[in-house]
Design goal:
With 383 residues, the protein is an alpha/beta fold. It is 26% helix and 19% strand. The chain is built from twelve helices and 16 strands. Strand 2, helix 3 and strand 3 form a beta-alpha-beta unit. The structure holds alpha-D-galactopyranose. Alpha-D-galactopyranose binds next to loops.
């Protein structure tokens, strides 16, 4: 199975944690299919941790908790598939999952077969309680091999949080996406930390092995399992724009049954989703800092060349002050590979507001307020 684009979907963890059940998952599938999310490309409904009983059965197989999932997982899968969506589940490379449920170490082949029998299309695979004597790449390869031989296409989502230098070994394991950082929480500090760590992994990301910056917190507003203070709508816009531009999977983490209008508007921004899903397979590049810089840049600016020759450009202000012209978010067309000598310039469309303008003297610099961003699609035009 080759995964050419970052997967889009919804995952139960951020809002619901252990508080999951069949009704919630079926409702999430219905809403995804009917609210316009599916039309934007969202397709995976993923059940995270805490879905099973605490013990395997007498044959050593995983058992869905009958109180939470009274009809079993095949029933859930069938419902999700009937809606034209795909079904994701969760296990872990250790003896136990992070929340203490049985996990797949030394059960890889049985569990892969179980997931295939249930109709699973996606497996998130965590890294808690893993044996220290076995290297991470072996643990992930073991499950990848079992999945590749289980008779069903299952997208393999590695979740080792960037630990043990994941980026150096993950490509060889067969994982299709891989978590590059620790868990996200619904507050500004968490968003900032994860966002400014992304440059360390970006060069290791690409088709069939995308870095995963973690599930989205857009629209959580402090509610739910990883809900803390919540963020402002502008901060959620910034979060979604960065994840989209950097090619991270877009796995919604809020309660999609109760999205407010702004949340829905952000998550269904088709122009941003197009950039995330662009078929050029080009990865973004940093415009104003080196990936090796020790100090994170509070004004990261990235660009990505798109399939039709347009360029996506994102300017972000993670600082606490207005951006000044001496801050490094000043971007020139040279940096993008378009020197003035070409006689060309850029026509910019901002993808949240629709504002348009043309770059006049080879430089564009915007006063971006703290905790916000500008995200453009740029078309190359004659001067
Ligand atoms: C880890 C993962 C989270 C979530 C929890 C579940 O912390 O990184 O995304 O899956 O485990 O227990």
């Amino acid at each position: 199975m080759i995964v050419t684009k970052p997967p889009l979907g919804w995952n139960s963890w951020n809002t619901f944690g252990h508080d999951i059940n069949e009704t919630l998952i079926l409702e999430a599938a219905d809403i995804m299919a009917e609210s316009g999310l599916k039309d934007c490309g969202y397709e995976y409904i993923v059940i995270d941790d805490c879905w099973s009983l605490k013990e395997r059965d007498e044959n050593g197989l995983l058992v869905p908790d009958p109180e939470k999932f009274p009809h079993g997982m095949k029933y859930v899968a069938d419902h999700i598939h009937l809606k034209g969506l795909k079904f994701g589940m969760y296990s872990c490379a250790g003896n136990l999952t992070c929340a203490g449920y049985p996990a797949s170490y030394e059960h890889e082949w049985d569990d892969a077969k179980t997931f295939a029998d249930w109709g699973v299309d996606y497996l998130k695979y965590d890294y808690c309680f893993h044996p220290l004597s076995v290297p991470g790449h072996v643990l992930y390869r073991s499950m990848a091999l079992a999945l590749q031989n289980c008779g069903r296409d299952i997208l393999f989502s590695a979740c080792s949080w960037g630990a043990d230098e994941t980026r150096h070994w993950i490509k060889s394991t067969g994982a299709h996406i891989w978590r590059s950082t620790g868990d996200i929480f619904d507050n500004w500090q968490s968003l900032k930390d994860l966002s400014l760590k992304a440059p360390q992994s970006i060069e290791y990301s690409g088709m069939n092995c995308f870095m995963d910056m973690d599930m989205l917190i857009v629209g959580m507003h402090g509610k739910g399992h990883v809900g803390l203070t919540g963020l402002t709508d502008d901060e959620y816009r910034m979060h979604f724009a960065l994840w989209a531009l950097l090619g991270s999977p877009l796995m919604i983490g809020c309660d999609i049954r109760n999205m407010d209008e702004v949340t829905k508007e952000i998550l269904t921004n088709k122009e941003l989703i197009k950039i995330n899903q662009d078929a050029s397979y080009n990865m973004p590049f940093a415009l104003n800092f080196n990936y090796d810089d020790e100090e994170p840049c509070d004004f990261p600016a990235y660009a990505k060349i798109l399939e039709n020759g347009d360029i996506a450009i994102g300017l972000f202000n993670f600082s606490e002050h207005e951006q000044h012209h001496w801050d490094p978010a000043r971007v020139t067309t040279d940096m993008i590979g378009l020197p003035e000598s070409t006689g060309k310039t850029l026509h910019l469309t901002e993808l949240y507001t629709g504002e348009e303008h043309v770059v006049t003297n080879g430089t564009f610099w915007e006063q971006i307020p703290p905790h916000s961003c500008k995200i453009y699609r740029a078309r190359i035009i004659d001067k």
